[in-house]
Design brief:
The complex is a heterodimer of chains A (104) and B (409). Chain A is mainly α. Helix content of chain A is 46%, strand content 8%. In chain A, β1 and β2 form a beta hairpin. Chain B contains 8 helices and 24 strands. Chain B has helices at residues 11-23, 45-48, 132-144, 164-178, 200-212, 256-260, 300-318, 372-389, and strands at 2-7, 29-35, 39-41, 60-62, 72-75, 78-82, 87-90, 95-97, 100-103, 107-109, 126-127, 148-154, 185-190, 216-218, 223-227, 232-235, 240-242, 245-249, 252-254, 285-287, 331-338, 341-347, 356-358, 365-367. Chain B is globular. The chains are: A mainly alpha (104), B alpha/beta (409). Chain A binds chain B through residues 64-67, 70-71, 76-77, 79-80, 84-86, 89, 101-104, and chain B through 156-158, 162, 193-194, 198, 220, 222, 224, 236-237, 265-267, 295-297.
Chain lengths: 104, 409
């Protein structure tokens, strides 16, 4: 697995740049990850990111868009507005998690 | 006397019941299968009927005729499972007690979950091919289609048989070519994924087959609604795609009683251990086939291979021993590509579909490359399904995936 330096730290990532060790993540890193993909984090962005992190603790896998919407209570429309184009990928990238595995 | 109740007598439920009946002593184990009616459909045929490759009467048979006589088959709608009391309540108030329960009620297309999908044009200009009724309506619509834009659309993953929509557009290309109409038909493939398929190598190979046929692919499209008056599908990020004939794969969900019983995730699939198919919440419950949240394709091959593993484990469990068999996520799918050819995909949890060849007893079959042999294999599979697979006879296909013949990139 490749590593990369983000915000002055050595971070383990996969071929697409998603973190492979969620424990290397913190909120400061999230800011940098967001900037990497052209997103400026506002309070509204933190709600789904915190949900993803919390859900991952119990589920051991990244929540799908549907789960963020039905369990996390954030409408899909809003997620598209916050993370344009590819919300599932962008949210999980910023949250330091693998992209959701719903797609098999 | 102990009781195993199997909810659902489809591919997984029927195989599990027959295989276990052959190996569990009748004086020690009662096996009960519950399903809503006696219709057992060969579901891969749903895709073939609209193109005239299979006839309607070839794909529906009596459920009962495939279930061992030593298994009790009950017809009824399932209302609720009480996992603490270990009972199943049916809609007509019959109650069944179990020692072990298998949930095998599959996944169902739910057009009601997307606003506008079930409008007055449902089964007229808006279709699906994952049900008996849908297949018949679509056959008529394809026959009557005289030209315009045909849109094949996927609502959200996971879906049953994730290669079927791709097969549909390749078969449609062939179908309209044969009818001399291909110039007047634009075919568009609309997916919520960022490529033609879920796994990289297969996505590249299959994507190239689509572009070679002049089929356009629209990616990252998450549908918000269907506007049947304007004949457009609308995404959450406000893109619109017009259609003359829409063939959609509605949202797939597990059975409602799974949710009512508190046994499901957000799509009513039962969370299970991915190697044993045992519920993560209750040791007395297993989920087989499409009904579980296994992170692999929802496909008949997965039902088949995972049932083989489940049966061995269940026999150990019945004897009070630990379960030692482990399912690797093996899936194996023929993909019809038109012109009398098909591709073959073979993969598991760890290994994505690769190119190469598949070692089969009658000779190697090429992977991810169209061939006549693969097509014949797919056609022959209907007979194998009815005559070998469902009755639980041995198949020369190991449950565990093999790397032999695969090209690792």
């Amino acid at each position: 697995m490749p590593t990369t330096t983000i915000a002055g730290r050595e971070i383990d990532v996969d071929a697409e740049g998603f973190l492979t060790k969620p424990e290397q993540w913190d909120e400061e890193l999230a800011q940098t990850l967001a900037t990497n993909i052209g997103i400026e984090l506002t309070e509204a962005h933190w709600v789904p990111i915190h949900f993803l992190r919390k859900d991952f603790e119990t589920q051991k896998e990244t929540a799908t868009l549907r789960r963020v919407s039905t369990v996390g209570g954030i409408p899909v429309k809003e997620l598209f507005a916050l993370f344009p184009g590819k919300p599932a990928k962008k949210m999980s990238y910023i949250a330091g998690l693998q992209k959701p595995k719903g797609c098999v | 006397m102990r009781t195993l109740v199997i909810l659902g007598g489809g591919t997984a439920g029927t195989m599990a019941a027959n295989k276990l009946r052959a190996r569990l002593a009748p004086e020690e184990w009662r096996i009960v299968v519950v399903d809503k009616n006696d219709d057992h459909d060969y579901q891969p045929g749903y895709l073939f009927v609209p193109f005239g490759i299979n006839k309607i009467k070839q794909i529906r048979k009596s459920r009962q005729s495939f279930i061992d006589e030593g298994v009790e088959l009950l017809y009824g709608d399932i209302e609720r499972v009480d996992p603490e009391a270990r009972t199943v309540l049916l809609a007509d108030e019959r109650e069944l007690s179990y020692d072990y329960l298998v949930i095998a009620t599959g996944t169902t297309p739910r057009p009601d979950q997307t606003p506008g999908m079930l409008g007055s044009e449902w089964r007229r200009s808006v279709h699906e091919f994952y049900s008996y009724e849908g297949m018949i309506a679509l056959k008529r619509a394809m026959k009557d289609f005289a030209g315009g834009r045909l849109v094949m659309h996927i609502t959200e993953l996971p879906i049953k048989c994730p290669v079927a929509p791709m097969e549909f557009v390749m078969l449609a290309d062939d179908y309209f070519t044969k009818r001399g109409l291909r110039d007047q038909v634009e075919i568009v493939y609309v997916t919520p994924l960022d490529g033609a398929f879920t796994k990289p190598v297969a996505s590249r190979e299959l994507g190239s087959h689509l572009s070679k046929r002049g089929i356009k692919v629209e990616t990252d499209f998450m549908i918000e609604s269907v506007d049947q008056e304007r004949k457009v599908i609308v995404s959450y990020d406000e893109r619109e795609i017009g259609y003359d004939l829409l063939v959609t794969v509605p949202l797939n969900m597990g059975a409602d009683y799974v949710a009512t019983s508190g046994l499901g995730d957000e799509l009513n699939y039962v969370p299970v251990d991915k190697h044993t198919m045992q519920s993560t919440a209750y040791e007395t419950i297993f989920a087989l086939g499409d009904a579980s949240n296994l992170p692999t394709s929802k496909a008949g091959s997965v039902a088949h291979f995972s049932v083989d593993v489940f049966v061995e484990n269940f026999l150990q469990l019945a004897e009070g021993r630990p379960m030692t068999h482990s399912f690797d996520g093996h899936a194996n799918c023929f993909v019809e590509s038109g012109k009398g050819k098909a591709l073959l995909l073979d993969f598991n949890y760890e290994t994505e579909p690769l190119t190469g060849h598949f070692p089969f007893s009658v000779g190697p079959m090429s992977l991810l490359k169209p061939s006549r042999t693969n097509h014949l294999g797919k056609l022959a599979f209907r007979h194998v399904y009815w005559n070998v697979l469902l009755p639980g006879r041995p198949m020369p296909l190991p449950a565990e995936m093999s790397m032999t013949g695969k090209h690792v990139e």
